[in-house]
Design goal:
alpha/beta, eight-stranded parallel beta barrel, globular
Length: 511
């Protein structure tokens, strides 16, 4: 080899080595900056908000068939992407998207306040969701009383804003909150207001098979700390009475206590009617930090609700624009982790409407890596078909069970019996079993879970081993022979109304 060739060879070797080092460093930096993703959990609340605007204002007409079709198709997408809870809005501003005894039908359903639309959106949504093994949580705006510059028309039942204008919040001068394109709110400090809203909620819970009640706007209006909302005469009277302010709280603490009092009253009423119904609240994303926070600005003390055991889930709406989210979102997660007792879980709300897809994924990773056991995405219409497909094959690749609710019940669940696998038809196989105990309560959304694995014992803590989640009203499930493998073992468990799971039965194998 000539000296010139040797020099050229040496030059190429050095250049290759330098290139290798550069690529290695780039890879290490990339992996260092990329959030570490824990394995997909077996139990995780994966919720999504579907607002009244989503299913009512997408159509130029109020045709019920079009709205029903939209709800059904939306729920199918949600199910296919392995979500498990839909927060479905049924009360916006003291109006109803169901057959209410106390408030009029929403004008969004027909164009006319109080007009019966000829169908019941809440009933239809519950049946559609349960057929897909989705939980349906009825989402209500709590204190908003009306929206718009015109007063509501006369209806039967009458609209509360028309019947009780004295319930509206007042500023520090005693002037009622003016009507606008945004919400006018009722005052949480008025006992009759709290009684009316808890009565509305009890009506929903007693007559509909909801899996949860979800509070939104459970607070005073925006900028209440500077406007003085609410110095209405009823609140001032209550504040000054020792019977309604026995601890002699100052004004801000007393107002926080009024919101907490509503949450406690509603929680007790719901759980007395149906103990398994889960009560959650969408709360301001920042508890005390930043200029916009729940505690100081709108007198919302979400931590207190958890401390006294009067809420099942807290869902802070941690919404930030793309240029802010990368740094702020993890910081806010740490705040919630530090202030809320572990017995009452926090499921962060992700503002998908403000984010690019890669940022949504990063926030899902942040939630999991900070040991939260669920998340909720706002909102359904913020995700496109491609986004749902990417969730199904990526972050939500496997189905997930809902987290336990041990504070509601820890009663042991008996496993099914007589679990077997038989030929159903030339192309199908049939799993059958028997329930070993009668249902403790009357709701229909108890579940069975079939797990599958090549290995024994079957690890039911691994999400990839969830083979099927089945409605609790049946004892048979049919599967195509094409998706069953002879090398796999199968077992089954029962999950009760409180998400408690039985032990798995002895595994069986396809012969």
């Amino acid at each position: 080899m000539s000296p010139k060739t040797k020099r050229l060879f040496l030059w190429f070797t050095v250049a290759f080595f330098i290139l290798f080092i550069v690529l290695l460093l780039i890879s290490l930096i990339h992996n260092f900056n990329r959030p570490k993703l824990i394995s997909l959990p077996t139990r995780e609340l994966r919720g999504i908000w579907l607002s009244r605007f989503d299913y009512c204002e997408r159509f130029k007409t109020h045709d019920q068939d079009s709205i029903k079709q939209f709800i059904a198709q939306s729920f199918q997408k949600i199910k296919d992407a392995n979500f498990n809870v839909v927060f479905f809005q049924v009360r916006g501003n003291a109006d109803a998207f169901y057959q209410s005894r106390y408030e009029p039908w929403s004008q969004m359903l027909t164009g006319e306040l109080g007009k019966n639309p000829g169908w019941d959106p809440l009933d239809y949504a519950i049946k559609t969701a349960h057929a897909l093994d989705l939980e349906l949580h009825a989402w209500i705006n709590v204190f908003p009383a009306w929206r718009g510059t015109q007063k509501p028309q006369r209806t039967n039942p009458p609209h509360p804003f028309l019947r009780h204008p004295e319930w509206v919040v007042c500023d520090s001068n005693g002037t009622a909150m003016p009507q606008s394109d945004h919400y006018v709110s009722f005052s949480p400090g008025i006992p009759q207001v709290r009684h009316h809203i808890t009565t509305v909620i009890a009506d929903i819970v007693s007559r509909y098979d909801v899996d949860g009640i979800h509070f939104d706007y459970v607070r005073y209006p925006e900028d209440a700390n500077t406007t003085g909302y609410s110095h209405d005469r009823f609140s001032l009277q209550q504040f000054k009475k020792s019977a309604s302010n026995p601890m002699n709280l100052d004004w801000a603490d007393w107002q926080r206590d009024q919101v907490t009092l509503f949450v406690a009253e509603a929680y007790d009423k719901i759980t007395n009617l149906k103990p398994w119904v889960k009560v959650s609240a969408a709360v301001i994303g920042n508890y005390k930090t930043s200029a916009w926070n729940g505690y100081n600005v709108v007198f919302q003390d979400a931590r207190r609700w958890a401390e006294i055991g009067k809420i099942d889930y807290l869902i802070p709406m941690i919404y930030h624009r793309s240029d802010q989210a990368q740094n702020i979102f993890p910081q806010v997660l740490k705040e919630w982790n530090s202030i809320i007792a572990a017995e009452r879980p926090v499921f962060p709300g992700i503002g998908a409407f403000l984010l690019e897809w890669n940022e949504i994924v990063k926030e899902i990773h942040d939630v999991r890596n900070n040991q939260f056991h669920g998340l909720v995405i706002f909102a359904f219409t913020s995700l496109n078909d491609d986004d749902f497909e990417k969730l199904k094959t990526g972050e939500f690749k496997y189905r997930a069970l809902l987290p336990h609710c041990p504070w509601k019940s820890t009663q042991p669940v008996a496993p099914p019996t007589d679990f077997c696998l038989t030929l159903g038809s030339p192309d199908t196989l049939k799993f059958t079993w028997r329930a070993s105990q009668s249902r403790t309560f009357s709701n229909s959304h108890q579940k069975y879970v079939i797990y599958s694995s090549k290995k024994l014992p079957i690890d039911i803590t691994k999400a990839e081993n969830i083979f099927a989640i089945i409605d609790g009203n049946t004892n048979v499930w049919t599967a195509s022979k094409a998706i069953l493998e002879k090398s796999f073992h199968y077992t089954i468990t029962c999950i009760d109304e409180f998400e408690n799971e039985s032990t798995p039965v002895a595994p069986i194998k396809l012969e």
